[in-house]
Amino acid sequence: MSSQVIERPFILVTSEERSQVLEKIETQDWAKDIYTKLKLKTDYQVVSFNKNPKAYLEKLPFNWSKGQKNSFPPFYKTYHIENGVQKNLDNATDTEKKYMELLDKYLQVAIDCGLMYYLTQDEKYAYVGSSILYSFTKSVQKSKLSDWHGRGGWLFPYDGFREVRVIGYKIPLIYDFTASYLKKGGRVFNIIKNKRVDFPVNELQDVCRTYADITINYGQIGSNHSVLESPSLVYNALAMDDQNERETLLSYFLTNSTGNQDALNVMAKNYKKKEIFGLRHHNI
Description:
Shape: globular
Radius of gyration: 20 Å
Order of helices and strands: HHHEEHHHHEEHHHH
InterPro entries: Chondroitin_lyas
Largest sheet: 2 strands, antiparallel
Number of helices: 11
Number of domains: 1
């Protein structure tokens, strides 16, 4: 069966719905206010980027000491240590969280740029958003995925559960919003070569597969974890350009439970028990 090609975006909103969104912005004060604020903060980032793209992107949490010549370095990883023991990030200090928060900030800028590109079709937004995505794609692949399937991750080696909720779900959204720009030949800024280059979609697909894998094959079942990780799983599945692969990955959300991730029908049964979601004493 040949893979079906669907025009992006289609994860949160479709290209066909764009006119309806724009009409709301034009006619509804609340929508106009959201748009105005989004445009203001995103335009500030675009101007900052265009002043010096290399300097702007080099502020990402790259670990240059681990890099090789003429190649993207890995990112600093995020850890939390208590009494010499690696722990999850629930009680991480501000200092320990600084790399996570910086990366989160940049990826949110990229999402904002992607959304503004969707709304305006102005390629200046897609250029910035996809350039951030490019740097992320290149550097995250320099790190090894944790071997600990209990809660391991990629950039958060002892807290993949948090990583997919902070980082993982954002990557497919950025791609979905900027894919039409990339498809028609839009280029991105490479800080190593200090020039515009083509975007390696195949590498981005590998990154999204990995984030889907962290949910499918890492973590615990029988708790609210499966619910909280589901957006990352679904978004990364939908980021796949191959229809068959999309459907395979989506099946782990819809019907196929694993030893590390409950499917939707199992999540629904667990939800009815209430206590595993911290709802034991509340009526819903």
